[in-house]
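Supplementary Methods, section 5.1.

A reviewer requested that the exact input to the structure prediction be made available. We therefore reproduce it here, unchanged from the version used in the analyses.
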Amino acid sequence: MIVMIASHNQGKIKEFKEMFKNTDIEVKSLLDYPDVEEVEETGTTFEENARLKAETIANELQVIALADDSGLVVPSLNGEPGVYSARYSGEPKDDQRNNQKLLTEMASFEGEDRQAYFQSVLVLAYPNNESLVVEGKAQGYILKELSGDDGFGYDPLFYYPEKDQTFAEMPLAEKNKISHRAKAMQELNKKIDTWMKELDIYENDDIK
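The structure derived from this sequence is encoded cell-by-cell as follows.
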C-alpha cells in the first residue's frame, strides 16, 4: 500500500520513511511529484493546516495522503512560534534565522520560563471519507545556544531532559522513538488499520 506524504520537507519525509520502514507501507512524497505545488498553510491551528495539506493532496492525486503540521510552542512567548514555526523569521524559510530569532526573543528568560514543547498533528486522508486525526507532544526546554548537528528546524535548541540531549544531538533512530512526531505516529499506528478497514480502502487496487 502506498501512502503519500503531503510535504516537500526533506527532514520530515526522512523521518516518516524511517518510521514506516518495517511496515508493508510504501512511502512516497511530493518530492516524487515535482509538478504538484505545496499546499498553502492558511489555518490557525496545527490540525487545520494538516487537514488542508492531507485532504488537498488526497483529492488532487486520488491517493491516501498523510500530512503533518507541527511546530514549537513556547508558553512564555504566548505560544509562539506555533503554527508559524517554519516561517518565524519571515520568508523564505530559514532554520538558522528562525533559531536566532527565538534566541533573541528568549534572551531574558531563565529556568522554567524556558519551557517549550513540540506538537505534531497528523492527518490521514482519502477522497470522500472522514480523515483520521492524531497528535503527539514532546516536552523540553530551549537552550541558550545551538547544540548538535543532526535533525532540522529547532532541534539544536530543543533540550529533552529525559535523554539529557537536544533533538539535534540524537541519532535519528533514537529521536524517532520519543519525538512529538513519533508519539503521533504511535497513535496513528493504533488506529490506521481500523480506519482503513471501515473505509474498505483495501479493496481499491489503485492504492495497494
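The longest strand covers residues 115-125. These observations are discussed further in the main text.
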